[in-house]
């Protein structure tokens, strides 16, 4: 059985969604935010971050995008991602990596600006640059969604869930409908998805 270490309103959201969509049982451990975690948690998460997924063989895995890709591979019957032989597989890997390497780090720079400068007076500039990077990334994704129901392939995938998780973290969320109408269209549909509604109740990612 899987074991998921997570916390509300974190990257654990998309991993919980993956497990729920796959219909596989898992134990959930809610980890309080702490600057001084116990060594046992640091052994499985050296950066003191969630989510951490303990695999059935007892090994641990971090990085939400990588966890999602692995779960999609291990549970192909759930259709969490295009198959390896599908022409859409390349886009799935591309966009999952793009979102995790461009937009997710920008979120971190905005919400944890103090980690990214040695000058306390420079935090506002770090945040401003972070929002600009988010906006640049979302504009690219919005263009990719033009004329499409889903980011990759012809059905819901974890790339779509990952995208709406990230857009829900935007500090100026009210501008999403006008700035990125294709992302808003995708997000509006997923806000009504049974699994997303259930997870949002515990994560409080967006207004119900």
What would you note in describing this structure?
One of its GO terms (molecular function) is transferase activity. Residues 1-79 form the GST N-terminal domain. Residues 85-208 form the GST C-terminal domain. Pfam families: GST_C (PF00043), GST_N_3 (PF13417). It comes from Mesorhizobium tianshanense. By secondary structure, the chain is of the alpha+beta class. It has two domains: 2-78, Glutaredoxin (3-Layer(aba) Sandwich), CATH 3.40.30; 89-193, Glutathione S-transferase Yfyf (Class Pi), Chain A, domain 2, CATH 1.20.1050.10. It contains nine helices and four strands. The chain has helices at 12-22, 39-44, 64-74, 89-111, 123-144, 158-168, 176-179, 181-191, 194-203, and strands spanning 2-6, 26-30, 52-54, 60-62. A four-stranded mixed β-sheet has the order 2-1-3-4, with helices on one face. Helix 6 crosses helix 8. It is globular.
């Amino acid at each position: 059985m899987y074991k998921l270490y997570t916390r509300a309103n974190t990257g654990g959201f998309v991993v919980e969604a993956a497990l729920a969509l796959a219909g596989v049982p898992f134990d959930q451990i809610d980890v309080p935010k702490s600057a001084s975690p116990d060594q046992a948690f640091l052994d499985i998460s050296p950066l003191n971050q969630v989510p951490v997924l303990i695999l059935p063989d007892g090994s641990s895995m971090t990085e939400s995008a990588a966890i999602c890709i692995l779960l999609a591979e291990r549970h192909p019957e759930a259709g969490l991602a295009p198959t390896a032989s599908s022409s859409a597989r390349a886009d799935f890997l591309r966009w999952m990596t793009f979102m995790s390497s461009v937009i997710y780090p920008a979120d971190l720079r905005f919400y944890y600006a103090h980690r990214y400068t040695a000058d306390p007076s420079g935090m506002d500039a770090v945040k401003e640059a972070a929002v600009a990077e988010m906006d640049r990334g979302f504009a690219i994704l919005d263009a990719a969604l033009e004329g499409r129901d889903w980011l990759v392939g012809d059905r819901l995938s974890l790339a779509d869930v990952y995208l709406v998780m990230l857009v829900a973290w935007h500090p100026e969320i009210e501008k999403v409908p006008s700035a990125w109408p294709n992302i808003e269209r995708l997000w509006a549909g997923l806000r009504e998805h049974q699994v997303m509604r259930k997870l949002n109740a515990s994560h409080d990612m967006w207004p119900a």
